[in-house]
Structures are given as structure tokens and as C-alpha cells.
Automatic annotation (TrEMBL):
Residues 1-17 form the signal peptide. The keyword Lyase does not apply. InterPro entries: Amidohydro-rel, Metal-dep_hydrolase_composite, Metal_Hydrolase, Metallo-dep_Hydrolase, OTAase-like. The keyword Aminoacyl-tRNA synthetase does not apply. GO terms for molecular function: hydrolase activity, acting on carbon-nitrogen (but not peptide) bonds. This is Imidazolonepropionase-like amidohydrolase. Keywords: Hydrolase, Signal. Residues 75-425 form the Amidohydrolase-related domain.
């Protein structure tokens, strides 16, 4: 009887109306849907389920129930990609040094939420985080993807693989009691090929989607080790082979030419910084198709901080050397035709200021169109996600930004983004933050 009653009740309830997926119509005054090609005039993008489903000429009126985003007086282009950020670093070295003993991972996570929002609202809808607490960055990545936190799509590396005493060794410069504590928990340092394979596997086990290792010394590590090669060829090869076996691409922190060359010969996918590039190293990068991620704003910022006394004394000569050489090296690489993808090392500089890199790239020899492509299609290619990101074509992610003015004429207009849409969700409109999550 109960079953019959339930069936009778269910029959009395009308069937739920079949609703079509929510659509958004974006009307664009000008549209650079495929960076590297000529922009379109008045256009309409139709977005559904976080993807672009259609691009039409002219201003198309939205169908009933669809949302309209009116950007008829704006220049619209794909969401930007920054291949080198540190979301748990604020770009304030004095504050970070003073709070190192009073803040823990929970505090870092809150900083990461704030920094992710800043990068997103600056127009960067995808970032590659190349050095953070692996558990925390994995949690932040997943929270953004499920819509709990507003931020860019995150491709995470976890901790940077480093030899003992190298750029990624967290014990550098610490007093004994603190160094012992850090060493006890540290798993990203390795010595010898087999140990480096272990270090890579452990970062992957913690959720790393890309592997980063330090081939050379670094400016900001608190050790007077210079910027020369630190990891052996055998260690580099072991890192790259292990990462590739797990389907992970490899980004390499490298300043000195010898370290860059060793990483390139080992099969690394991208070189981060590349401050001292000679002709032989540039030729090797071209031969192997290795990406250069110049992070041009980083040495400028590091040098300013070092001269202002905001960094430890051991970093000052390294900052001076890197800043003096980097611009010329990058200009030489660009002129030679090395593949360049956009990255800033934001976290050294402040989050939300990532687009300042564009003017430096143009000064080094890229055209504005080339600099934009470096932060869209080329960056997507370097990530291995060119089929998903980097242009506004049907089937790709509905990631877009809008600016006033023409960035193909003046690339600095990208420093003032008016509108940001990521995966079809409007996060910024008319220069104002939108309520998030949205219904």
C-alpha cells in the first residue's frame, strides 16, 4: 500500500522542466580571439559550461535567459597566463623575514588566497606556481577549481628540487636550532642521481603537476654561493627523466650559462630566468626547442630591494650581477629566435603587478603582439595545454579579459584590466570586483 501511495503521489507531481545550460553572451568592440592574428571588429562570444561555444561577427542579442556582458567599447583578448609565480609570497621581503618565526602554514594559506585574487583581477586567469608548500598549494588549486575560492587556474610544482646547500635548500643561512628543524622536515633536497629521483617522486606524490629544480644558485637564497652551476649533469638528467616518466614537464631555475646548458641537454622543458646566456647556450635552446621564461621584472625588483637593505647581505652581489646581465641576455635570445613564454616570478615582485613584465619584454625586442602571444598561446603551449587555453576558440576555456585602449599599440594598457572572466565566471567587470561565488 505504501508503495502504491508513493507512486500515486509521484504521478501527481509534474515533471521538472528541462532547462538548457546557462549561457553568457560577451559583446566585444574588438576581439583578439587568436593572438598573433589580426583582431576582429565587433564580435560576440557565446560561453557555456565554462567554455567558448561560438564566436560570431557583430553584436548578437542574447537569447532568453542568457546573461549579457557588454564590452562593446573594450578590447577583448584571452585571459593571460603567468608561468612563474609564488602564491604564498607577498613580495615584501622585510615582512616575510620578520614573520618567518611567527606564521605557520595556515597563515601562508590565507596569504595565498589573497594573492590568487590579486593575480586573477590583474587579468591572469592561469598561473604556474613554481615553489610553495606542496600540500597547501594543492589545496588552493583544488579549491579554485571547485569554485570555493576566487583565483586563477593553478598548475603547481610543490617545492623546488635542489642539491644540499643549493638555491632550494631551506636551511641556508639559518641558526643551528632552526636549521635542524627545517632539515628534519625537508624532502626536496637531494644529492646524487638516485636521491634526486626520490625527491621528484615525493613531490609528485604530494600533487605536483610540474617539476621545478635549481640548476644554479639563486639571488634570494641566503647563501653566498654565487649564481653558477650547482647540480651535476647526472642529477639533472635523473630529475628530468623521472618527471617525464610521470608525465610532468620540467621548469628549471637557472642563471649561469653552464647550468642552463646542462638543463637543456638533460631535456628540460623551460628555463626560468636565464640571466647569463651565451651564444652556445642560445643555440642549444633553439636546437632542443626549450622555452625561455625570462621573469624580467624579478632582477629589477630584487636589485631595488637589495640596495634598500631589505635582503640579507649574501644576496646583494648576486642581485647586482643578475640585474646587470639579464636584460642583454634576454634581448640576445629574443633576437636569435628562442621560444619565449611569459612569466614574472611574482612573489619577488608584488602580486597584481604581473603585467609590468609586458613593457620589459617589448623593450627586450618582442613586439606588443609577440608579448601578448607569449602570455597566451605560447604560455599555453609551454604548459602543454594549447588545446585548452591561450585563445578564444570553440571548445577552449572561457577565459577572457577586457581593456580600454589597444594593447597591440601600447602594451602597458594591460596593466589596467577592466574585466576578467575565468571559466565563464565574471570576476571583475567595469573595474569592480564581482560577488563570488555567483549563483
Amino acid at each position: 500500500m505504501l508503495l502504491l501511495a508513493a507512486l500515486a503521489c509521484s504521478a501527481a507531481v509534474p515533471a521538472l522542466a528541462q532547462t538548457s545550460p546557462k549561457e553568457t553572451y560577451v559583446q566585444a568592440g574588438r576581439l583578439l580571439d587568436r593572438p598573433g592574428q589580426t583582431p576582429r571588429g565587433a564580435s560576440t562570444l557565446i560561453l557555456r559550461d565554462g567554455k567558448v561555444v561560438e564566436v560570431r561577427d557583430g553584436f548578437v542579442a542574447p537569447e532568453t535567459g542568457a546573461t549579457l556582458v557588454d564590452l562593446r567599447d573594450k578590447f577583448v583578448l584571452p585571459g593571460l597566463i603567468d608561468l612563474h609565480v609564488h602564491l604564498f609570497s607577498e613580495g615584501d621581503p622585510v615582512k616575510e623575514r620578520m614573520s618567518a618565526l611567527t606564521e605557520d602554514e595556515a597563515d601562508e594559506f590565507v596569504i595565498g588566497i589573497e594573492d590568487a585574487r590579486r593575480d586573477l583581477e590583474a587579468g591572469f586567469t592561469t598561473v604556474r606556481d613554481l615553489g610553495s608548500n606542496p600540500r597547501a598549494i594543492r589545496a588552493l588549486r583544488d579549491a579554485v577549481e571547485r569554485g570555493a575560492i576566487a583565483g586563477p587556474r593553478i598548475v603547481n610544482a610543490g617545492r623546488m628540487i635542489s642539491v644540499s646547500g643549493g638555491h632550494g635548500d631551506g636551511t641556508n643561512g639559518l641558526a643551528e636550532a632552526f636549521a635542524d628543524t627545517v632539515a628534519h622536515r625537508q624532502i626536496n633536497t637531494c644529492d646524487g642521481a638516485d636521491d634526486c629521483r626520490r625527491a621528484v617522486r615525493q613531490q609528485i606524490g604530494l600533487g605536483a603537476q610540474v617539476i621545478k629544480f635549481a640548476a644554479t644558485g639563486g639571488v634570494l637564497s641566503n647563501v653566498a654561493g654565487g649564481l653558477g652551476k650547482q647540480m651535476s649533469d647526472e642529477e639533472m638528467k635523473a630529475v628530468v627523466e623521472t618527471a617525464h616518466a610521470f608525465g610532468r614537464r620540467v621548469a628549471v631555475h637557472a642563471h649561469a650559462a653552464e647550468g642552463v646548458r646542462g638543463a637543456v641537454e638533460a631535456g628540460a622543458d623551460s628555463i626560468e630566468h636565464g640571466s647569463f646566456l651565451d651564444d652556445a647556450t642560445i643555440a642549444a635552446m633553439k636546437a632542443h626547442g626549450t622555452w625561455l621564461v625570462p621573469t624580467m621584472i624579478a632582477p629589477v625588483t630584487a636589485l631595488a630591494n637589495a640596495r634598500a637593505g631589505k635582503l640579507p647581505p649574501a644576496t646583494i652581489p648576486k642581485a647586482e650581477a643578475a640585474a646587470a646581465a639579464a636584460a642583454a641576455s634576454h634581448a640576445r635570445a629574443i633576437k636569435a629566435g628562442v621560444k619565449v613564454a611569459f612569466g614574472t616570478d611574482t612573489g619577488v615582485s608584488r602580486h597584481g603587478e604581473n603585467a609590468r613584465e609586458f613593457a620589459l619584454l617589448v623593450r627586450a625586442g618582442l613586439t606588443p603582439a609577440g608579448a601578448i602571444r607569449a602570455a597566451t598561446l605560447d604560455a599555453a603551449d609551454a604548459l602543454g595545454r594549447k588545446d585548452q587555453l591561450g585563445s578564444l576558440e570553440p571548445g577552449k576555456a572561457a577565459d577572457l579579459i577586457a581593456v580600454s585602449g589597444d594593447p597591440l599599440q601600447d602594451v602597458t594598457v594591460l596593466e589596467h584590466v577592466d574585466t576578467v572572466v575565468r571559466a565563464g565566471v565574471v570576476h571583475k567587470l567595469g573595474g569592480k570586483r564581482q560577488v563570488f561565488p555567483q549563483d
